[in-house]
Amino acid sequence: MTTLSPFHLAFPVHDLAAARAFWGGVMGCPEGRSSDHWVDFDLLGHQIVVHLVPGCERRDQASSPVDGHGVPVPHFGLVLGIDEWQALADRLVAAGTEFGIAPTIRFRGQPGEQATMFFRDPSGNAIEMKAFADRSKLFATS
């Protein structure tokens, strides 16, 4: 089995305080290095960096049909364990997060059955968090 390396993702935000409240508070990501223009967060061992870009709120609503839902494109996220996914879903609901696609199971009964949810950070960046009861099915086709 290959050991996964942490990924690095940098993306724009319009307000660092709002980004800290969301990524650090709601999502529970520990904060790393920072400046007046960017902040590193630890997203379950992966490095995400929010960069202050005033006026960058995402207004595009591009989507792609997947299992009866309009999935926002672009988006990013993680594949979690099912218990971690449920705990995050509960935390997001408790925080009053507005979901583009509420926590649900898609592809029910198919090889790619997965728990998924879509939401946006305060700057409008689309996020998908998903989980598989059996993570070995991540790339299953049959």
Automatic annotation (TrEMBL):
The VOC domain extends over: 5-132
Instruction: Extract the SUPFAM superfamilies matched here.
Output: Glyoxalase/Bleomycin resistance protein/Dihydroxybiphenyl dioxygenase
Record's protein name? Glyoxalase
Task: Name the Pfam families for this protein.
Answer: Glyoxalase (PF00903)
Which species is this UniProt entry from?
A: Alteraurantiacibacter buctensis
Q: Which Gene3D superfamilies match?
A: 2,3-Dihydroxybiphenyl 1,2-Dioxygenase, domain 1
